[in-house]
Design a protein that fits this description.
The protein has about 425 residues and is mostly helical. The chain has a single domain (about 10-220, about 230-425), classed as Growth Hormone, Chain: A (Up-down Bundle), CATH 1.20.1250.20. It is about 75% helix and about 0% strand. The protein is built from 18 helices and 2 strands. It has helices at about 10-25, 30-40, 70-95, 100-120, 120-140, 145-150, 155-205, 240, 245-265, 270-275, 280-285, 290-310, 315-340, 340-370, 375-380, 385-390, 390-405, 405-425; strands at about 45, 45-50. Strand 1 and strand 2 form a beta hairpin.
């Protein structure tokens, strides 16, 4: 057997940061609330003026106001299609390599943005952002992380996964203000079209930089004490095998839990700031600031959680993140009502950190449980949990239409987080028969 190399080669880090660049484009999902602020029917005396749905938006000719539920539909559809396409996207990565998947995904997303902009309609948003955007994200996102993890040993999986997926979380950091600028300068239509062109260019260039290690390459292994029992699998499980283990379904549930709460905040970030910051006209007029701040914390949470999960263990990192986030969600109605900008940014920051952390924990969990060889499709299957929790954003939109508030959505989301922690504590890696 080939001996482990002394250290990770420079090419490995090029793959990592190329993957980060690709995810910086695919992460447009996290800036959706910027468009929602302009498209959703306005509020009057604390209630949405639903009778204005379908009426023209004065400052954007050709566009019409949408209800809260309608605004959440393209977002929710994008999420579920994203999750479903992770499976064939993972298959493409495992069989054809990461270049094909990354570039194909980027071009689908770019086309979807252009369709959404040119259509000037609810249907166009569903087709362009929801369907084409979801396809592009699913195929594109499945490529960078598995490719990068092939270069590194298990003791670095959390950090590497966190670095790659931090691009997806951090996308809102620049897409939110850029989208707001483009909306004001070129309208809703121009904002989608120009972003689509940008995404196509970046994903093609960065996609060409992705690569697998050469045959026979063995990444540096972590130091193991004599007689120690391996905490990670030494077997590469096939996709057909992992679905026969109960741990697979536990990982899917853990994914549902850790993402449903984060996307609830992400999808409503700008409107939440508008309610809580009534006394600050500047923040109300520049609600993208919260989305950008969330993008920064989201990205930092992926890297930070990934790093300390390598040190304290995946289970402890998952438990810590979810319990703190659940406490913040229970308090969120009070925080919004208090009008405290500091408390709002603190609570929202914790929610973003927890969500981002889950996106670095889950590919690491999958590699720890089932090995790196078939990680593309195996993680694609586990990623179904990320899409299944789309119900929370849609449910939240319906709750807001009925009550005018998101209070019950916050409470339900926090309860789900607590259930997830319980499942996490009892789930250990599967053991093959000969182990």
């Amino acid at each position: 057997m080939t001996a482990p190399v002394a250290k990770v080669p420079g090419k490995a880090w090029r793959v990592v940061f190329s993957g980060t660049a690709i995810n910086l484009c695919l992460g447009i999902l996290y800036a959706w609330s910027v468009w929602v602020k302009h498209m959703k029917v306005p509020m009057q005396e604390g209630k949405l003026m639903l009778e204005m749905a379908g009426q023209p938006i004065p400052q954007f000719p050709g566009w019409e106001y949408l209800t809260a539920a309608q605004c959440s539909t393209p977002f929710s559809l994008c999420v579920i299609i994203f999750a479903l396409l992770m499976i064939p996207g993972g298959r493409i990565q495992d069989k054809l390599g990461p270049k094909v998947g990354a570039i194909t995904g980027g071009l689908f997303l770019a086309l979807g943005c252009i369709i959404a902009g040119l259509s000037k309609s609810y249907a166009g948003l569903i087709i362009g952002f929801g369907i084409f955007g979801g396809i592009g994200m699913g195929i594109g996102y499945a490529a960078p992380t598995p490719a990068a993890l092939k270069w590194f040993g298990p003791h670095q999986r959390g950090l590497v996964a966190g670095l790659v997926v931090s691009g997806y979380g951090g996308a809102a950091l620049y897409i939110s203000p850029l989208a707001e600028f483009l909306i004001r300068a070129t309208g809703l239509t121009g904002s989608f079209i120009w972003l689509g062109i940008w995404f196509a260019a970046v994903t093609i260039i960065a996609g060409l930089m992705l690569a697998w290690p050469e045959p026979g390459y063995v990444p540096p292994a972590p130091p193991v004490a004599a007689g120690a029992k391996p905490a990670l699998t030494i077997i590469d499980w096939a996709p057909s095998e992992i679905v026969k283990t109960w741990q697979f379904y536990a990982l899917v549930w853990l994914f549902i839990v850790t993402t449903q709460s984060g996307l609830l905040i992400i999808a409503n970030a700008a409107p939440i700031l508008g309610k809580a910051a009534k006394g600050s006209p500047f923040l109300v007029a520049n609600a993208w600031i919260l989305a950008s701040y969330g993008g920064l914390v989201n990205a930092a949470g992926r890297i930070g959680t990934g790093k300390y999960s390598d040190i304290i263990g995946r289970d402890n990192a998952y438990t810590l993140n979810c319990l703190v986030s659940a406490a913040c969600l229970f308090l969120m109605p009070w925080v919004i009502g208090s009008g405290s900008i500091f408390l709002l940014f603190l609570a929202v920051g914790i929610a973003y950190w927890q969500y981002g952390g889950g996106l670095s924990l889950m590919p690491s969990y999958t590699a720890d449980f089932y090995g790196p060889k078939n990680l593309g499709m195996n993680y694609g299957l586990v990623f179904l949990g990320w899409g299944i929790r789309f119900f929370m954003t849609r449910l939240a939109g319906t709750i807001e239409d009925i009550t005018g508030k998101l209070t019950w959505a916050f409470i339900l989301s926090a309860i789900v987080l607590i259930i997830g922690v319980i499942v996490c504590r009892v789930t250990k890696r599967p053991m093959a028969a000969h182990e």
